[in-house]
Description:
Elements: H1 2-29, H2 38-68, H3 77-96
Helix pairs in contact: 1-2, 1-3, 2-3
Amino acid sequence: MTGLLRGPWGVTLVLANLSNAYVAYGALVTQPLGDWDEQTLTAIEFTSALLIVLAVITSLLALVPVRRGTLGRWWLAPSLIFLTVGAARWTYIVQTYPQGPGG
């Protein structure tokens, strides 16, 4: 029965990790023009938060087959890496471009 379950779980996790990669690409590639570019900074913060949420959901989704022994533990690694990337990008943006007194 384990072999039959491996395929659907693998496909689901690959698709979830591909969507995480797409969001991570958007969060990492987008650069603000300066301290005054609030729209871009807000978009980067939102994308980083979205990446964190998607990574947590993917981690929880991956935890089910890993705990059951259907998939190996390495399936948890991509979502945890995306979680770290999202948190690091958000922290970098908040500390590099602090909100001014008028914001």
